[in-house]
Amino acid sequence: MKKTLTILVADDDATHREVLRTLLEEWGYAVREAVDGEHAVALCREQPFDLVLMDVRMPKKSGLEALKEIKVHNPAVPVLIMTAFSDVAAAVEAIKSGAYDYLTKPLDFEKLKVVLRNVFAHVGLIRENATLSRSLAATEAQTGMVGRSESMRALWEMVRTIAPTDATVLITGESGTGKELVAKAVHAAGRRARGPFVAVNCAALTESLLASELFGHEKGAFTGADKKHEGHFLKADGGTIFLDEIGEMPLSMQVKLLRVIQEREVLSVGGNKAVPVDVRIIAATNRDLAREVAAGTFRQDLYYRLNVVTLALPPLRERADDIPLLAQYFMARFADKNNKKIKGFTPGAMDRLVRYAWPGNVRELENVIERASILLLGEHISERELPERFAPARGDALTDALTTDCPTLEDVERAVILKTLKRFGGNKTEAAKALGITRKTLHAKLSKYQSAQEDAPEGEDEDKGAATS
């Protein structure tokens, strides 16, 4: 079923809003109304719109002011400005600020119809691309790999190249980047796909338990060994064994593992006869093994045996382009799991997700989306459902000014001056150049904002700093 496009009509003239609502609904669009610029900004923060049709002259916030705020929260939404012929200069400024186009009043409704058709033809292409991306993501999700960034494309190509072989693979990357999922992808795409995939967390077991779990033990091999136990290597015979956190393995165990790799046979604890085993070995670590080798905490010969092919997973902060795709993927999964109808994310929520540093990587993103889906009462995940750490950082003058509900131009100007002065260490000559004003004008501004002058960072004498920089 074709999605009904939703248009926000922002105009303080109730009669004009009613005319536009009637007309737009006849053309098949869904319509919401905003009585002024402030109302329009609030509605755009609550839900995404396919288009905003907005008057220039409105109380509380002008159309131009509202446009700038809306574009901060959702840069992609097309905005059409309506203006009287005498305000065309303001409309041109709106175009420079990100408006898609402007129409003069009284509106030519046939022209409006054509403009809307053109806008949504463009939006339709974007939507088709998004649908294609989701389809590709679904295919990749079957192997645990979601992402269309350049680094993930390169990783995917590498996986497809090495999967058909039996080469030992070392996967590196920070915690939470999805190393086990990549290991499963290599296994699933290779000739051993029908064989078992056995994962072992080397960091979760003591040295004695690790030997028993990996190689098995004989009955009576130690206290409590009341029966024979088959180790993970034998369980993985004909398939793949994944050794996670290999960097945590004790040196004495590294020797035994090296023998298994070289001889392709395992000797159980308490046993006296080695058993042949046919497994592919994939190891993973969040440590720098080359540095561990240099420090003497990891065997060099084992490192070279494991490091036949290396797959380096980038942290999520280095592939921010994948965050919206991953967020949508997790949203769909948890909506289904929690039996909720979730349509998407508000622009403000997605903006915060993309800007966040993600120290916990993909695992942290997954947890955040699961939490949001559980807390959600409406149909769009918003800033309200995100943890407190996603709130904009306070204390920066420019951030504080721009995140205030109704910042004045004076607030923003003062904040920009402070931030620029701080950037140049208090050097007013360089700061004035960066601001595009004269030094005299900057001094005048600082005199006007006494508090700004008191807070300005101390630095070298301006002329001296400029001469030595």
Spatial order of strands in the largest sheet:
2-1-3-4-5
Shape descriptor: elongated
Distance between the termini: 63 Å
Q: How many strands, what sense, and barrel or not for the largest sheet?
A: 5 strands, parallel
Work out the radius of gyration: 30 Å
**pLDDT averaged residue by residue:** 82
Helical region count? 21
Low-confidence region ranges: 128-139, 451-469
What share of the residues lie within helices? Answer: 40-55%
Beta fraction of the residues?
Answer: 5-15%
The SS-based structural class is alpha/beta
In total, how many beta strands?
Answer: 14
Give a description of the structure.
The protein has 21 helices and 14 strands. With 469 residues, it is an alpha/beta fold. The strands form four sheets. Strands 2-1-3-4-5 form a five-stranded parallel sheet, with helices on both faces. The radius of gyration is 30 Å and the shape is elongated.
SSE order and pairing:
Elements: E1 6-10, H1 14-26, E2 30-34, H2 37-46, E3 51-55, H3 63-73, E4 79-84, H4 88-96, E5 101-105, H5 109-141, H6 150-162, E6 169-172, H7 179-188, E7 197-201, H8 207-215, H9 232-235, E8 240-244, H10 251-263, E9 265-266, E10 275-276, E11 280-285, H11 289-295, H12 300-306, E12 309-312, H13 323-337, E13 344-345, H14 347-355, H15 361-375, E14 380-381, H16 397-403, H17 409-423, H18 428-435, H19 439-448, H20 450-455, H21 462-468
Parallel strand pairs: 1-2, 1-3, 3-4, 4-5, 6-11, 6-12, 7-8, 8-11, 13-14
Antiparallel strand pairs: 9-10
